[in-house]
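Tokens in:
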């Protein structure tokens, strides 16, 4: 009888892609996607602990499976990712939910297959392994569900230790995939008809730092030189490692989108220092100038944190003024949330919730008003949209332009995966609408 899998994913785009890698593994083991969680023979939780307190949510979801597991003795439940990699968490999961069969971490995702086979062979005990770092990057194929967009990992882990961030503790030191594997994967994706590739890593700019394999701008150029109609994006860049050579690589290839996600986090030098970001406000602004010198119409997006310990009204005003100065196309805004085990969690001057709330509202209002103004500028222009999906409710196709702006239009044909020219006649916050031309 056919066996089915169900994956529950928490967190960021990198986790979404990790779930595609896990799905690839499960398909190799003979599973296919379950129509519902109840019909699954294996359920995998891919967890995240970067920003939100995902713990309660995750525990709630696990707890709800107790009855199902009692009914279905052969059901395999596995849980892995950032949260289970956190200190003490694997043991906690095992203690609270002894029916969980496999707990894995972030370094041993490639071993999940072996653990599953071991359980299928009748191994009775739970397999709790978060310490097993093979040192080898898992290169198995992914089962992608995001056509025409494809995500390609280039680095794993992070060496930066920003004081608020848990990533270096749960994902370990930065490791880069071999360029030959990345190039082969990209070539294959383009041959399969994918229209957009996004290179992923916590800090893609430091790809292969200190090795004799290709540097990040060299990798960009190699992929950018590939034949075919496609777009190339990458995220995330760290301002301290963003170089003029990367700006030149963007400028030099029509495939590389004129957009850059460059998280600044704060506009205050004092806070940037306390965050251990290794750049000042001025350094950041200089990098933006260099970028715009080579790529004049580049859309810049960012991540911003409010309420970092010790943040004063003056520091916060510096963030607001930086947002105005750069003119971001859009931004992700976060309220600082202490992560156990990070230096910032122990810093003095934790900011009361009401202050952070007021600050984030002011910041969101500013970011939104800038985004709205930028969307309005599209009216009357024709943009090329790579169509991602069809919105049943609105009866419209949707996709992004080169700068990452979401556009909607109607069509009688199936447009998913097509590049379509759309004349924009309306804008609404972050999105734009128009007619196919
Ligand atoms: N609190 C709030 N935001 C955080 N981020 C990372 N850690 C935290 C934290 N502890 C945000 C940063 C980062 C993005 C991926 O998540 O802005 O760039
Ligand atoms: Fe976290 Fe900083 Fe690394 Fe980004 S660069 S993953 S914010 S430590």
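Residues out:
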């Amino acid at each position: 009888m056919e066996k089915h899998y169900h994956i529950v994913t928490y967190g960021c785009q990198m986790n979404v892609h990790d779930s595609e890698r896990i799905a690839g593994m499960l398909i190799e083991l003979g599973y296919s996607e379950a129509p519902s969680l109840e019909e699954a023979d294996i359920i995998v939780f891919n967890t995240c602990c970067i920003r939100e307190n995902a713990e309660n949510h995750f525990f709630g979801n696990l707890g709800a499976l107790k009855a199902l597991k009692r009914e279905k003795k052969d059901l395999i439940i596995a849980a892995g990712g950032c949260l289970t990699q956190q200190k003490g968490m694997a043991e906690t999961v095992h203690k609270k939910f002894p029916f969980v069969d496999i707990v894995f971490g972030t370094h041993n995702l490639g071993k999940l297959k072996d653990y599953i086979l071991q359980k299928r062979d009748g191994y009775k005990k739970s397999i709790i392994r978060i310490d097993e770092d093979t040192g080898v990057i898992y290169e198995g194929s992914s089962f992608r569900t995001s056509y025409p967009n494809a995500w390609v990992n280039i680095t794993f882990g992070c060496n930066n230790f920003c004081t608020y961030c848990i990533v270096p503790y749960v994902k370990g030191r930065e490791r880069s995939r071999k360029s030959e594997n990345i190039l082969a994967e990209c070539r294959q994706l383009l041959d399969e008809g994918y229209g957009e590739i996004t290179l992923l890593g916590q800090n893609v700019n430091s790809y292969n730092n200190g090795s004799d394999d290709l540097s990040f701008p060299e990798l960009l150029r190699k992929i950018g030189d590939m034949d075919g109609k496609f777009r190339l994006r990458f995220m995330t860049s760290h301002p301290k490692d963003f170089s003029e050579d990367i700006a030149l690589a963007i400028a030099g290839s029509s495939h590389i989108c004129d957009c850059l996600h460059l998280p600044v986090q704060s506009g205050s030098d004092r806070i940037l220092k306390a965050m251990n970001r290794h750049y000042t406000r001025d350094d950041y602004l200089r990098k933006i100038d260099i970028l715009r010198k080579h790529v004049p119409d580049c859309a810049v997006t960012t991540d911003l944190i409010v309420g970092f310990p010790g943040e004063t009204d003056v520091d916060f005003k510096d963030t607001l003024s930086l947002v105005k100065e750069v003119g971001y196309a859009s931004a992700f805004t976060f309220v600082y949330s202490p992560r156990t085990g990070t230096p910032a969690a122990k810093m003095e001057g934790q900011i009361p919730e009401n202050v952070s709330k007021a600050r984030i509202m002011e910041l969101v209002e500013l970011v939104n008003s800038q985004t709205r103004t930028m969307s309005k500028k599209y009216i009357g222009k024709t943009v090329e949209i790579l169509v991602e999906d069809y919105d049943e409710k609105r009866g419209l196709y949707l996709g992004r332009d080169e700068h990452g702006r979401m556009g909607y239009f109607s069509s009688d044909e199936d447009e998913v995966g097509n590049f379509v020219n759309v004349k924009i006649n309306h804008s609404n916050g972050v999105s734009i609408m128009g007619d196919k031309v």
